[in-house]
Amino acid sequence: MQPPDESQPLDLEPAYGAHATRGPLIVAVLGALLGSVFAAVSTSDFMQHLDRQVHSVHCSFIPGAGKELGESGCKAVMMSPYSSFFRESVWGGVPVSLWALATFAFLVYRASLLLWRGKPSRAETTFLLAATALPVLMSLVYGYLSVAKVGETCKVCMGIYVSSALVFVGALLAHLKNPARPDDTPQTGKFALWFGEGVAFVAVLSITYLVVTPTPDKKTSLAGCGSLVSGEDPNEVMLPLPSGDGEPAIEVLDPLCPACKAFDERLGASSLRKRLKLKAVLFPLDPSCNWMVTEALHPGACAVSEAMLCAGGVVSGRRDEKAAQEVLRWSFKNQEKLRELAGKDEKALRTKIEQTFPGVKGCLGSAGVKSKLTKSLRWAVANAIPVLTPQLFVGNSRMCDEDSDLGLEFTLTQMLSKQGKAARALIKPPPKPAPVISAPTPAPAPKTVVARPPPSEPEPAAEPETTEAPETQP
User: Fold this and answer.
1) Average pLDDT across the chain, whole number
2) Which of 114, 210, 374, 451 could be stapled to 120 by a disulfide with Cβ–Cβ 3.0 to 4.6 Å?
3) What CATH class has 13-212?
């Protein structure tokens, strides 16, 4: 037998070539394709909501399935302040899912190219592995934000997280099965070129997005939708909220309203809250104290509103802003449990409130705090505001309802700008509503429901049982 000729190079094709890396690269391509589909679904849902209308949202582990109207974990995440960037300068901001789509599309391109060529170099698999680490890192960050900050999980987002892990595993195996060759040389220039290709994917999709997405009406962005008759607080029922010392603003809220909680979180996560001097007007959508609603949209809201007024010293005159804000934070954190408890037994809810905040004992449920809450509701009547929460008034100008979610930062930036202040200054306040003694006949198919006075004597001891109110909007 002749010894092998050591002068000839060994055939290392099985170790270095297409055979060893083909399977892992196929896994990487499939993972990137799956991630592209999930990211595209999420981006599509986001873009639909930019027309300021109500749309259904996909929320399923199956791409494109589970489209539903109403609240869901996916909608909560999409409406959160973490779902997009540049929200103050771009209407709705640029969604994170768009950049995820660009990244996955780039990974499909790179992994498919290596699979097609058949002999990836060590430098190529090194770069692919580094590129797949980015979506894994972002998945960890956004998974944490979803659970810790938003308090909801998004099935479509989880699909993106799984896809990120899948493409990373494929790239890692391809790299491990592609050890360094004797003829490998440094590829610094190529690394820069490949990185530039990835940036180009992101840039092209971002520019396309900015071109095709709708923009809001400039007039309403600057001046809002309507105005207060008067922003004064003669009965001293407003409660200061955490904010800065800027433009006076009023937030109409219900402490057990989920939309109010989400709005408060979006506003708090932005830098714009510091540019407002914010006060709250309590407007519980609970018929036990609010004669303008006919069903308990948020049972227990009246009791919690009383607790805020008591803790804030509105009744006693000894103001305590932090105590009232503490009650509000507690109610936001435990909304679902508090509504459920009130639906079964409101007395039990009041007992729980007194146990949690002993300082309100003796004030909660008293004639004094009920009178103050009634005056808070009458403030809404005197300003003819719609029966819904939340609402934000910058100065005396009301932010449009459809701008309070994805467009919050953009619209608020516009309203606080010099042009916005000039536009708001030109708005004339609406005439003061005339007193109404009996329930009026509602107009057919009203577009908005306006707060109206109670059909009873001032400071009613109890809600009239025979009065019917117009249909309300939650």
Assistant:
1) 86
2) 114
3) mainly alpha
pLDDT at 454: 60
In tens, the pLDDT along 222-265 reads 999 989 998 899 999 999 999 988 999 999 999 999 999 989 98
Indicate the domain borders of the chain: 13-212, 220-425
Q: Under CATH, what is the fold of the domain 220-425?
A: Glutaredoxin (3.40.30)
Per-residue pLDDT tens over the stretch 54-106: 788 988 888 878 788 777 889 889 988 899 999 999 999 999 999 999 999 99
